[in-house]
């Protein structure tokens, strides 16, 4: 017999399946405040550990501790809380609207609100995000009108995309929100290109790319890292690790025992992991990366460790592939509740004010929804015109499309 | 016989093939434990183990590239691309690699892979869940391209595809997954259980790749269609009362030219229907073949009814998708010409 035994294929599996006990013992969570904060011009090889740890600011008692704390005022934190609560209320209403047949499809952010809401506050006007479908917080935290978002979701007569784009696939150049593609990862490398252009033109604006843990498996993710590191593009490369890619656990894209952040190391890109459910930590890390980009020090890769509490989309049923109680077992808590507690500890907030704010925000969202619905929903009321199908394919409508439009009767 | 939806028929084809040949492996995004977002692979992992049916990373290029490598080793991979729209990252692997390995290696290496993918619109999938990319593949030599229109064909053709020694693109019209589509979007789908073609043998059978089927006999005009549009064409023939012969191509590459030529020679008129964009679509190939082979029998110009030359719109999809009214107008037009 040969000294080698026969080969066998390794197919990774999550720790538990429906019916089992949720288990996050494999997620190693360092104490809040325990991860150092390097200077922004640190050499990437000196901070390799940051790609394996988790930067956290808020501790269990709701206090902000350690070297990444102290960047935000009470007022800024209250604004952040409001953004997250708004996004949550918005999701709740839109989810219901989808069930009522007012739109075909919706994707919610439950549990991940801190990531996009806090990140947006570290950017400036003029910076550009290349988001995926779970970063509506970038718009909310930039005061983009909710009515416009809903018009887009309802594909109504006031939809800025004229009914042509899938719901939640927003676009707003003014608010630094590049038009979303349904094809995953394609925009990660585009973010790098935008940042390179800004550097070519000696501009001051920076870019941010967004991707999910599952989508890091796409070739475009790796292309983005090559270009970002080669040209030291002023870009922040964000990976939202919410543990699941539809039914597929993060171990399928990650493989081995590394982290997603660690993928930056082979490219010489400084890579940090951060508690994605900690508004303060997300903001602090985003600001650190933004400062690096602005000081022409090049790209930063950030992995946000979080959990997708809701379904992947309205077409998904998570109870078919993970324990129903898994989200409750998630060790990093709820981003809204954690910031609320912190503000209460700081003496800047109270249960009463929170309850009142919740009611106010829901009212605002409902008012916006009423206004949006007055312009129609997917199957009722005002609709984009069939004529709109033919517009915007090219800057100027070529004759063959004009003929087709006429044939369609418009 | 059992009453099966197209989803069940597709699953049954993989099940039968995996049971008969242990070299058949099934993988793709979400296909393992969960059974795929449309549930086409449900139960296969439990039955055949996770090294024969497993989840792949979200990397279409990686999925197709590894499938090619597995095929070179001697396996028969049948992979799922979650939506046809997501095949593009793998386009290089499909067109430059899979399609040409036999030719360039002089048969030293071959590529018996099947790439299954849901195609077409009619489910409010928007721009990125509604595309019909068949013409991109029929332009590539070395591939085979199949589009079934019912559960019986889907199963028989998929088994043939898995047993085929060359790479096969298997395009599944998702509008037909649960029932045939009569072309009227405001009416509920009639389930396959109420439909003759929902009758599918439980065991192994094949349908030859490259053979069309005449779904409706007629003598006035030939309608050439495939996938969802077969049902729209049948509805248009019923509604207009025009004595149309409806051909379901089933396989676009290779194409059953004889059936088309025989029919058009008999009827003297032809309408071609597909969901995909008009310009340089597969309809252009069909029309030029018809004029090349049937010119002296034609009594009217051949007309195409297709989607428009625009991306697929979300809210206005029923104005994009050819329905029986549009096909009916074309039928009337060729009859009056
Ligand atoms: C190129 C491509 N392949 C497949 C899909 C289908 N798809 C949509 S979302 C998704 C899962 C993405 O998971 P992840 O990147 O982890 O992001 P999350 O949804 O968890 O935020 C898949 C496979 C797609 N949209 N694009």
UniProtKB/TrEMBL annotation, chain A:
Nucleotide-binding: is it a keyword of this entry? no
Give a yes or no for keyword Oxidoreductase in this entry. Answer: yes
Q: What is this protein called?
A: 2-oxoisovalerate dehydrogenase subunit alpha
The record's listing under SUPFAM superfamilies reads: Thiamin diphosphate-binding fold (THDP-binding)
Using the UniProt annotation, give all residue ranges assigned to the region (Disordered). 1-38
For this protein's source organism, the top of the classification is: Bacteria, Pseudomonadati, Pseudomonadota, Alphaproteobacteria, Hyphomicrobiales
Q: Which family does it belong to?
A: Belongs to the BCKDHA family.
List the InterPro entries: Alpha-ketoacid_DH_E1_comp, DH_E1, Oxoisoval_DH_suAlpha_N_dom, THDP-binding
Q: Which keywords annotate this record? A: Oxidoreductase, Thiamine pyrophosphate
Q: Which cofactor does it need?
A: thiamine diphosphate
- Top-rank EC class of the record's enzyme: oxidoreductase
CDD domains the record matches: TPP_E1_PDC_ADC_BCADC (cd02000)
Q: Where is the Dehydrogenase E1 component domain?
A: 83-379
Briefly, what is this protein's role? The branched-chain alpha-keto dehydrogenase complex catalyzes the overall conversion of alpha-keto acids to acyl-CoA and CO(2). It contains multiple copies of three enzymatic components: branched-chain alpha-keto acid decarboxylase (E1), lipoamide acyltransferase (E2) and lipoamide dehydrogenase (E3).
Biological process annotations from GO: branched-chain amino acid catabolic process
- Which Pfam families does the entry link to? E1_dh, OxoDH_E1alpha_N
**GO molecular-function annotation terms?**
branched-chain 2-oxo acid dehydrogenase activity
Q: Which residues form the 2-oxoisovalerate dehydrogenase E1 alpha subunit N-terminal domain?
A: 6-45
Per the UniProt record, which EC number(s) apply here? Answer: 1.2.4.4
From TrEMBL, chain B:
Protein name (Swiss-Prot/TrEMBL): 3-methyl-2-oxobutanoate dehydrogenase (2-methylpropanoyl-transferring)
What SUPFAM superfamilies does this protein map onto? Answer: Thiamin diphosphate-binding fold (THDP-binding), TK C-terminal domain-like
- Matches recorded under SMART domains: Transket_pyr
Domain Transketolase-like pyrimidine-binding residue range list: 4-179
Q: Which cofactor does it need?
A: thiamine diphosphate
**GO molecular function, one example?**
branched-chain 2-oxo acid dehydrogenase activity
Matching Pfam families: Transket_pyr, Transketolase_C
């Amino acid at each position: 017999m040969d000294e080698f035994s026969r080969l066998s294929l390794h197919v990774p599996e999550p720790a538990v399946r429906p019916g089992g006990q949720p288990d996050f013992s494999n997620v190693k969570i360092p104490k809040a405040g325990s991860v150092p904060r390097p200077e922004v011009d640190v050499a990437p090889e000196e901070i390799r550990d940051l790609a394996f740890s988790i930067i956290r600011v808020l501790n269990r008692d709701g206090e902000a501790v350690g070297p990444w704390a102290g960047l935000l005022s009470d007022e800024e934190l209250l604004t952040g809380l409001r953004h997250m609560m708004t996004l949550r209320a918005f999701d709740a209403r839109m989810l219901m609207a989808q069930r009522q047949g007012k739109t075909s499809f919706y994707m919610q952010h439950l549990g991940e609100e801190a990531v996009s809401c806090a990140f947006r506050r570290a950017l400036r006007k003029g910076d550009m995000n290349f988001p995926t479908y779970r970063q509506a917080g970038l718009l909310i935290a930039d005061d983009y009108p909710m009515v416009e978002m809903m018009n887009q979701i309802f594909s109504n007569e006031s939809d800025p995309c004229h009914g042509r784009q899938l719901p939640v696939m927003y676009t707003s150049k003014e608010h630094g929100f590049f038009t979303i593609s349904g094809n995953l990862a394609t925009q990660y490398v585009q973010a790098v290109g935008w940042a390179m252009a800004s550097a070519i033109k000696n501009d001051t604006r920076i870019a941010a790319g967004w991707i999910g843990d599952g989508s890091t498996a796409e070739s475009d993710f790796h292309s983005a890292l090559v270009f970002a590191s080669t040209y030291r593009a002023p870009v922040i490369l964000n990976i939202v690790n919410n543990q699941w890619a539809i039914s597929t656990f993060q171990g399928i894209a990650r493989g081995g025992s590394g982290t997603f952040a660690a993928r930056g190391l082979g490219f010489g890109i400084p890579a940090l992991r951060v508690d994605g459910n900690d508004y303060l930590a997300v903001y602090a890390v985003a600001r650190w990366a933004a400062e690096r980009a602005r000081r022409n020090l090049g790209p930063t890769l950030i992995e946000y460790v979080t959990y997708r509490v809701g379904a992947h989309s309205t077409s998904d049923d998570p109870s078919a592939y993970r324990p129903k109680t898994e989200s409750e077992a998630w060790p990093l808590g709820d981003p809204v509740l954690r910031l609320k507690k912190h503000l209460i500890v700081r003496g800047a907030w109270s249960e009463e004010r929170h309850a009142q704010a919740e009611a106010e925000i829901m009212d605002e969202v409902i008012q916006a929804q009423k206004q949006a619905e007055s312009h129609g929903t997917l199957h009722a009321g005002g609709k984009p015109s069939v004529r709109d199908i033919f517009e915007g394919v090219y800057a100027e409508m070529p004759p063959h499309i004009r003929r087709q439009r006429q044939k369609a009767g418009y | 016989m059992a009453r099966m939806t197209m989803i069940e028929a597709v699953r049954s084809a993989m099940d039968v093939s995996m049971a008969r040949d242990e070299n058949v492996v099934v993988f793709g995004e979400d296909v393992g434990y969960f059974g795929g977002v449309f549930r086409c692979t449900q139960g296969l992992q439990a039955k055949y183990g996770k090294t024969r049916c497993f989840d792949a990373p979200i990397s279409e290029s990686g999925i197709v590239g590894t499938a090619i490598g597995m095929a070179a080793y001697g396996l028969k991979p049948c992979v799922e691309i979650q939506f046809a729209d997501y095949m593009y990252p793998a386009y290089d692997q499909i067109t430059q690699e899979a399609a040409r390995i036999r030719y360039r290696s002089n048969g030293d290496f071959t590529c018996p892979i099947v790439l299954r993918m849901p195609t077409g619109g009619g489910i409010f999938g928007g721009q990125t869940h509604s595309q019909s990319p068949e013409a991109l593949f029929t332009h590539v030599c070395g591939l085979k391209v199949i589009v079934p229109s019912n559960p019986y064909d889907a199963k028989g053709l998929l088994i043939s595809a898995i047993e085929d020694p060359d790479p096969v693109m298997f395009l599944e019209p998702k509008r037909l997954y649960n029932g045939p589509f009569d072309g009227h979007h405001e009416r509920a789908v009639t389930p396959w259980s109420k439909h003759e073609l929902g009758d599918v043998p439980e065991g192994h059978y094949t349908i030859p790749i490259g053979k069309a089927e005449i779904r409706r006999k007629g003598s006035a005009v030939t309608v050439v269609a495939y996938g969802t549009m077969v049902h729209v064409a049948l509805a248009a023939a019923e509604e207009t009362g025009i004595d149309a012969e409806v051909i379901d191509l089933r396989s676009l590459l290779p194409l059953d030219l004889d059936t088309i030529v025989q029919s058009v020679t008999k009827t003297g008129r032809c309408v071609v229907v597909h969901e995909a964009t008009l310009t340089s679509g597969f309809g252009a190939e069909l029309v030029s073949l018809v004029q090349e082979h049937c010119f002296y029998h034609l009594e009217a110009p051949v007309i195409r009814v297709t989607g428009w030359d625009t991306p697929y719109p979300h809210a206005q999809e029923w104005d994009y998708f050819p329905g029986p009214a549009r096909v009916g107008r074309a039928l009337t037009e060729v009859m009056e010409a």
